[in-house]
Structures are given as C-alpha cells and as structure tokens.
C-alpha cells in the first residue's frame, strides 16, 4: 500500500485535503466516495513532490540532494521529529506492531506532510524493508545518526527503548538550542533599538537644531563640527552605507562557502575570548551527548565517532574529531586521541579515560554532556550579563555626546550675552 494525497469536497461543499493509504488511485477514489466525499484530485505523495519541485530538482534529489529539490521536499521539523519519535517509542513499548504504530502516529499528526511521510514509511515497512531503510528515503527528516540508532535498535531487539532515548536526546538538544536563541534575543533587540535611536537623532533631529548654530558666524566647537559632519554623511549617504553593509554581509557569506576560508574563520572564532568558550562548550556537549547515545544503543565506536563528528558546528573541531577517529581506527585510546587534538575540554578527556577504564564509556559521556550543558548555560548568563550593560553604556554615551555637541554652542552664546 502507498500513501496518496487527495483533494475532495465534503457534504457541506467545503474543499478538504488529506492523506490516505491505498493500493491504487482508483481504490482511493472509491474509499473517498464511501466516506461521502467527492474526490477532485488524487496523487501519490512522491508524484506530488516531483510535480512541485520539477524534473531537474527531482533528479538532483536522486543524485544526493543537490539542487533546489530539498527546499520543497516535505520534511519534519525538530519538534515534529521529537513528537513522532516519542509516540513510536510509547506505542512499540506497549506491544503494538510497527506498522500499526506508524499508522497511529500518522493519524495523530496535524500536518498533512507529516502524515504523508509516516504513511510512506509504513508502506515500505509493509513491503519488507527495515525501519532504518524506510527512514533513509527521508534524509531531511531523519539524519544519519537517527537512522544508525534505529538500525542498532532493530538489530538488538530494543527498538522501543532506543527510540525513547532518541526522543529524549532530540528534546534536550532542542532545549539547548532554544536557550541559545533566547539568550541572544534581548541583546540583539537592545542593540537594534540603540542604533535606531542614534540614527534617528542624527538624521532627523540634529540637522534642524544645527541650522540655528550655522547662522552664527562664530566658529563652532570641534565636537559640534564633528556631529554636523556625521549627520550630513548619514543624511546624504545613509542609503549607500546600508547598501555597502548589506553587500558586505552577503559577500562574506559567499566567501565562507569555500571550505578553506570557512575553516580559517572558524579557527579565528576559537581564538576570540568568550566566543571561544561558548563554541567549545556547545560543541563538546553535543559531541559527548551524541557519542554517548550511539555507544549506548550498540553502534560500533568508529561508526559512532564518524556520526558524532557531523553534529559539530565548527569546522576546525570537525577536522580535529576526524583526526581522533583516525587515531582510534589505528588502535589508539579515545581519551589519548581527544587529548592530542588539543581542543576538547579536560573534563571530556578525563571522563572518557575513566569510562574506557571501567567499561562505562556511555554513562561517563552522558554525565559529561550534562555537565557541559549546565556550564554552557552559566557561561551564556555571564556573557549576556556583560554584553547587555555594555550596550546600555554605549547607547547612553552616544546620546550624551550628541547632547554635549548641541549644548556647547548654546553655552558659548550665553557667555556672549
């Protein structure tokens, strides 16, 4: 059976859309008529995706996801993936067969795209494919780490428990990512408001006040002349300055597409105070948590290291982790390889050594990931605690300079009277 997307008219004359399973379009139309629906269009999910993305994009997808096809392919977001994983874990642990678990999860999905993906996976399972193989047809929704853990769970016979661990991992990563975003929202809003206020003063307020001083033939104070020059620059060329800034940002992002330039930029970030600490804590906690989950699920260490390398956001750390994998493949100890890399925190190295010595590597890595996440949260709080007052002081100082530049000529005029 395959998943079909349909558009139909119900008894009230309202157009509805949905996803339904069937052996053929003819059978699906018969099912819809049996539900008192008048089908307008019925198509398989795969055909509908191809129609949306076009033949060239579909070919790019088949070649490994190149082109623009990936932009329009239905996929699960992080929240949906965590929810589906949690639902499947609960249903499987309650004794429900895999195909029925997938069908139940599809019925509970709110978005048609999620229903389509789950029913497509169920169809593959009914055809005799493993769940990991079915997931591999949706790489945008289920990445390599996810599929490797599912494959390990299927091999060991503990798929339900593995999916539960996966759900907890996804939810924990989502929580950490949301923490990072929330920590940045207030400083960015404060910085934007500060720049906007100063810009409005310089472009709209200062020119009107300065006209009064320019009618006087006396030489204006240096600070006032500087304020007038900056105000004229922003009033006459402000649009060009914004254009140059936007072009610089776009050009910088284009330059970072080159692997060597991107690696150089990431290496530079690892030398910037405070930024370095946040990057190392975020990536090391993600690395330790992923490696712990994979090892606990029964994935071989070398394969687990290769997968955990992909979750690192910094290219310099990715290359260091690749070196670690090579050393382990040659027979070296993981803790020694991490120490030789030079980037990983001492806590991660020490707990890895302890885990290798007593056979509890997965537990030690999990404790390390939890500790690093807690330390990351404290570091973000401290960094933002420094950054926010700095922005306030900068804004206050800018406004104070503007006021001084305006008031100095007034004081001089009063002294002349």
Tags for this model:
417 residues; mainly alpha; 3-stranded antiparallel beta sheet; 76% helix; flat; protein transport
Explained architecture:
With 417 residues, this protein is mostly helical. The protein has 17 helices and three strands. The chain has helices spanning 25-34, 45-62, 69-72, 78-93, 98-108, 112-126, 131-135, 144-156, 159-214, 222-255, 259-269, 275-296, 301-309, 315-329, 334-341, 346-358, 361-416; strands at residues 2-9, 15-22, 38-44. Strands 2-1-3 form a three-stranded antiparallel β-sheet. It starts with a strand and ends with a helix. The model is unreliable at 46-71 (pLDDT under 50).
Q: Percent of residues in beta strands?
A: 5-15%
Count of alpha and pi helical runs: 17
**Chain-averaged pLDDT:** 82
Shape: flat
Brief write-up:
GO terms for molecular function: metal ion binding. By secondary structure, the chain is mostly helical. The protein contains 17 helices and three strands.
Topology:
Layout (H helix, E strand, L loop, with lengths): L1 E8 L5 E8 L2 H10 L3 E7 H18 L6 H4 L5 H16 L4 H11 L3 H15 L4 H5 L8 H13 L2 H56 L7 H34 L3 H11 L5 H22 L4 H9 L5 H15 L4 H8 L4 H13 L2 H56 L1
Family: Belongs to the GSP F family.
Protein name: General secretion pathway protein F
InterPro entries: GspF/PilC, T2SS_GspF, T2SS_GspF/T4SS_PilC_CS, T2SS_GspF_dom, T2SS_GspF_sf
């Amino acid at each position: 059976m395959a998943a079909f997307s349909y558009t139909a008219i119900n008894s009230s004359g309202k157009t509805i859309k949905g996803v339904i399973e069937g052996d053929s379009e003819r059978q699906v139309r018969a099912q819809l008529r049996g539900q008192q629906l008048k089908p307008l269009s019925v198509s398989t999910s795969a055909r509908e995706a191809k129609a949306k993305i076009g033949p060239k994009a579909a070919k790019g997808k088949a070649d490994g996801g190149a082109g623009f096809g990936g932009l329009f392919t239905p996929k699960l977001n992080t929240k949906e993936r965590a929810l589906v994983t949690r639902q499947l874990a609960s249903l499987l642990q309650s004794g429900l067969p895999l195909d029925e678990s997938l069908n139940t999860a599809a019925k509970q999905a709110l978005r048609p795209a999620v229903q389509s993906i789950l029913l497509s996976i169920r169809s593959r399972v009914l055809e005799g494919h493993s769940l990991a193989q079915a997931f591999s047809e949706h790489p945008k929704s289920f990445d390599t780490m996810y599929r490797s853990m599912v494959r390990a769970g299927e091999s060991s016979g503990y798929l339900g428990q593995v999916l539960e661990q996966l759900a907890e991992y996804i939810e924990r990563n989502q929580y950490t990512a949301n923490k990072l975003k929330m920590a940045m929202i207030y400083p960015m809003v404060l910085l934007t408001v500060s720049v906007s206020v100063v810009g409005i003063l310089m472009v709209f307020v200062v020119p009107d006040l300065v006209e009064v001083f320019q009618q006087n033939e006396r030489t204006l104070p240096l600070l006032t002349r500087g304020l007038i020059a900056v105000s004229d620059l922003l009033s006459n060329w402000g649009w060009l300055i914004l254009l140059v800034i936007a072009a610089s940002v776009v050009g910088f992002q284009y330059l970072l597409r080159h692997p060597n330039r991107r690696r150089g930029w990431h290496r530079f970030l690892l030398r910037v105070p405070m930024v370095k600490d946040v990057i190392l804590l975020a990536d090391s906690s993600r690395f330790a948590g992923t490696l712990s989950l994979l090892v606990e699920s029964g994935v071989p260490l070398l394969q687990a290291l290769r997968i955990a390398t992909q979750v690192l956001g910094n290219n310099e750390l990715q290359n260091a982790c690749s070196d670690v994998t090579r050393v382990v493949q040659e027979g070296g100890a993981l803790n020694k390889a991490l120490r030789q890399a030079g980037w990983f925190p001492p806590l991660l190295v020490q707990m890895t050594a302890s885990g290798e010595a007593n056979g509890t590597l997965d537990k030690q890595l999990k404790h390390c990931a939890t500790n690093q996440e807690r330390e990351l949260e404290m570091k973000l709080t401290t960094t933002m605690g420094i950054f926010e007052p700095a922005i306030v002081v900068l804004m206050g100082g800018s406004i104070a300079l503007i006021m001084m530049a305006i008031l100095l000529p007034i004081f001089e005029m009063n002294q002349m009277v």
